[in-house]
């Protein structure tokens, strides 16, 4: 599937931006689109690193934003990752959507975020925003959860699980998109999220396994 094949399914501005760098869609991206990504379906995307998961999120978020449906929240586990995504999204979509990063004071409602379309934050920060009854949360139409396998993390998992549960209660019609390269119970997680499971093993570089001993690697 090429990008031109979905030109009529996405906003013209989004097609213009993506077509500068992208011609052919990767397998996971094709599967996500066929599974209802652009129709608002909840999806759990489990594919290898560098297989194109972030673009899947971008397609869904910008599709909502440019159709004037509402805001997007992109949840990440680490502040460093939030900064990386903020720089990437702002560089690509600065002229089309307002991108903000929220990783600071956990005791603030951050009302200024009302003005932004894409809000990148950690799960702890979003939990704080919910507790402060941030009014603009009602305008959120899609939530992307990057590294969603951290639900199984002893330190971050409980906060993320409660956060997802609260968001689904507060925003019953929100689209949820979970992204991960490593999930052991993907079918159970997809069921819990009421999401369709998108799996694919394609990766841009072949994965080789081997043993390194005395500065020599023997592959097997």
Structure write-up:
The protein has helices spanning 12-18, 27-34, 53-66, 79-93, 123-131, 157-170, 186-192; strands spanning 43-46, 71-76, 99-102, 118-122, 140-146, 175-180, 196-199, 210-213, 216-219. The protein is α/β, with parallel strands linked by helices and 220 residues long. The chain has a single domain (27-201), classed as P-loop containing nucleotide triphosphate hydrolases (Rossmann fold), CATH 3.40.50.300. The strands form two sheets. It has a seven-stranded parallel sheet with strand order 3-4-2-5-6-1-7, sandwiched between helices. Strands 8-9 form a two-stranded antiparallel sheet. The protein is globular and about 55 Å long.
Which sequence of SSEs, written as H and E, runs from N to C? Answer: HHEHEHEEHEHEHEEE
Described by strand count, sense and barrel closure, the largest sheet is: 7 strands, parallel
- Which CATH class? Alpha Beta
Q: Under the CATH scheme, which architecture would be assigned?
A: 3-Layer(aba) Sandwich
Mean residue pLDDT: 92
Uncertain runs with pLDDT below 50, 5 residues or more? none
Please state how the strands of the largest beta sheet are arranged side by side.
Answer: 3-4-2-5-6-1-7
Form type: globular
Structural class given helices, strands, pairing?
alpha/beta
Radius of gyration (Å): 18 Å
Task: Please count the helical segments.
Answer: 7
| CATH fold topology | Rossmann fold
Number of domains: 1
Q: First CA to last CA: what distance? A: 34 Å
Beta-strand share of residues: 15-25%
Percent in helix: 25-40%
């Amino acid at each position: 599937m090429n990008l031109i094949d979905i030109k009529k399914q996405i906003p013209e501005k989004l097609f213009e931006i993506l077509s500068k760098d992208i011609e052919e869609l990767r397998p996971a991206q094709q599967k996500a689109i066929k599974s209802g990504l652009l129709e608002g379906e909840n999806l759990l995307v489990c594919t290898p690193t560098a297989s194109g998961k972030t673009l899947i999120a971008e397609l869904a978020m910008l599709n909502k934003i440019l159709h004037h449906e509402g805001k997007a929240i992109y949840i990440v586990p680490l502040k460093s990752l939030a900064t990386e995504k903020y720089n990437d999204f702002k560089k690509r979509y600065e002229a089309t959507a307002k991108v903000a990063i929220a990783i600071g004071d956990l005791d603030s409602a951050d009302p200024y975020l009302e003005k932004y379309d894409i809000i990148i934050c950690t799960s702890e920060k979003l939990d704080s925003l919910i507790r402060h009854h941030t009014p603009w949360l009602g305008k959120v139409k899609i939530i992307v959860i990057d590294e969603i396998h951290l639900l199984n993390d002893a330190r971050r998992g409980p906060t993320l699980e409660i956060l997802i549960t609260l968001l689904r209660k507060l925003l019953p019609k929100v689209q949820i998109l979970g992204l991960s390269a490593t999930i052991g119970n993907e079918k159970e997680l997809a069921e819990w999220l009421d999401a369709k499971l998108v799996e694919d093993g394609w990766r841009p570089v072949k994965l080789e396994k081997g043993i390194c001993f005395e500065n020599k690697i023997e592959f097997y």
